[in-house]
Structures are given as structure tokens and as C-alpha cells.
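Field reference: sequence -> structure
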Amino acid sequence: MESIRWRKPSLKPIQTKTKLAMEEAKEEPLSPSARLFHEPNFNVHVIAIMGSKSRINPQVIKEKLVHTLLKHPRFSSLQVVDEEKNGEMKWVRTKVDLDKHIVVPQVDEKNLQESPDKFVENYIHNLSKTTLDKSKPLWDLHLLNVKTSDAEAVGVFRIHHSLGDGTSLISLLLACTRQTAHPDKIPTIPGNKKRPINSSDSKGLWPYVAKAWSFMRLFWNTIVDVLMFMATTMFLKDTSTPIKGKPGSEFNPRRFVYRTVSLDDLKLVKNALNMTINDVALGVTQAGLSVYLNRRFREGKKDKGATEKNNNLPKNIRLRSTLLVNLRPSTGIQALADMMDKDTEAKWGNWIGFVLLPFKIVLRDDPLDYIREAKATIDHIKLNIAQNYHQYNNVFLQFGRPPRRNWLLWAPYGLPCT
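Structure field:
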């Protein structure tokens, strides 16, 4: 997923046919987070790339979308600016012309001047130079019947982030699929494994001591994270490195480059170290960044080596990333598939928060040390009031939820942008 920005300063009003038609249509104001995603410096799109085992028939896709995607109000509504209400934006249902949303470029694979993989990469890169048409629902689908090293054809979704977050979009994808053996049933996914409770641990004062200690760590980590966030906004900057973007680079076109990693290999390491897939993935990322920066820092200089004691990396590199997290409580596959309904437990929208994720840029002689350090970082982030918001949701509901317009102020600390 990547973000692309519009160059225009604001969303222009959309002229609908008649005022009466607007009143008859089912209208709903945009949530604060949806409006936030239209700000000039925070205008975010979601790009999803999917491979197919067979060639894609555009007509079949259109027929399926009529009974799935178009039934969702967000994908069949305009975002209209009501100038009579101080520029308030709202959703207005409209008739969707799929021919204007599905793009099927004619590609002559035999006469391509580049490899198919490079063609797809350049095609997606060029998408980041264009914008979605605001006179229609803010999404489109590009079907590329080009055989790459991973698939027979490729589909590229481009969706404005105001339509929903990653969990919402994945839930919609799940709701649009069925099991091969049982066409009337949605897919199943493995549930979370619960750790067995040792009866000896629940006796005496130990459970109370453990809870008290956990709460103190929770409180302390939250205070530290809030102070770090405030310091970052005011003066604490990342170290200048070859991968640090210059001011204004967020408006540059994006290039999407990926590598395929074996999930079985990740599981092997995960099980051996009793960790999670996320721990292993972050450790691999941290190792890759460290090795890459060590190579970049030696350019034009004498190579000092690539070991833990002898390397080209400066000391105490500060390198951080903004990590978006889903704040919904864990739900089953059925709740995710039913998320588009109003009264379900799992709600549609942008229920996301973000945290500052620090990368430890150092070289290690033992590759597993990268993963152990990554786990320590993730454990610290997890033990934070903001990231455990759903456990305290009843407290907020009991004492009254903050005003909707002020709810965005909680977002930097990980609470939901609803």
C-alpha cells in the first residue's frame, strides 16, 4: 500500500442534477477522519495489487461487481461539498457506470520494450502521477492481462482512504468471496490460539502483583510515548541518512518494488523463537535496512567492514517509521464479512491509530539478534494504553464519548479516527 497526494489544494464542490434529487438521496456526513484524508498535505490513497492464476475477463469482473462491490454505499456514493452548510462534505448515493471505473489497457505482450514485471511496475508508478476523478465514486480498478513472473494477469485497485481503512477493505474482499467446495459459505481463517492457564499461577498474591506490575509498565510506556511524540513534533528529528526524504518529497510520484518472501521460512523462525510473524518480519526489515545503510555509508570512503564491531554505520542512528494499527477488537471472519452492515460488532470506517516505530540500525553477527530486538520494540508498543484502547472502550462509553469533532485530537496517541 502506498499513499499518493492530489496537487490541488482542496476538494471542489460537485454539481448534482437538482436540489430535490440531493434531498431524496440518502445523505450522510463524512466522518472527521474521512475529511482529514482530503487535507492537501494528508491526501491518501490505497493501492492494492492482486495476481490472478488465469487471464482476466473484464466482462465477468463487471458482472460480479454489480452484485458485490456496488452494493456497498461507500463505493457507490459521491463525496459532495455542501456550500450552504459551511462546506460540509457528505456522501450522496449515485448510479455507478462501471465502464468509467474499470480500466483495461490494450497491451501487446510480444512487442513490449521491457520485461512484463517492469511494465507492471512502471504502470503502477504512472498511476501515482494521476488523481481520481472527483465527479464519480473515488475508486478504480485496472486490469492488466500481462503474464509476470508471479501471475498470469494483474489487477490494481486504487481507492481513496476516506472510503475505509485496510481492515474495512479486506473485510469487503472477504465478503465478496466464497469457498470453492461450498459456494454459499465465506472463507475460514485460523483463530487465535489461547495460551493455557496454569492453575498454580492463579493462586495467592502473584496474580495481583503481576497485574499491578503490568499496569505500571502500561502507564510508564504511555507517558514515554506521549513525550516522544511531543518531542518529535517540536524538535526531535531523525538522523540524516541516504533514505531520508527531503522536504516536499511526499508529493513525488511513487514506485512500488517488492520481493516475495517464503511464509514457511517466516513460520520456521517464528516457531523456533516462540514469537509472532510480525516480530520476524520487523526483524528482517531491520536487518535489511542496517545492511543497506552500511553499504551506502561506505560510498566514497574506506570500507571498514560489515561486522558488529567493524562497520561503516554512524553511532546512534535515529530512524523511525509511522506505523498504522487497527484498533478494532479481534473479531471472527463472519463479523468481518458483515462489517458493511450498520449493526455489526465490527464497524466500517477508519478505526486506526498510529505509533512511532523506531528501527535499531546496527549490524549483528547473529542474525537472530535482529528479531529479538524487534520483538522487544513491538512488546513496548503493545504495552501502551493507546494500543490497548479496545480494552478500555467501555470506560469511554460509560463516562461519555468525546465530541465527534474533537475525536481526531486523540488520533496521535493511537485512538480511533472515526
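Note: The beta strands are 27-29, 45-52, 77-82, 88-93, 102-103, 139-144, 153-160, 319-326, 352-359.
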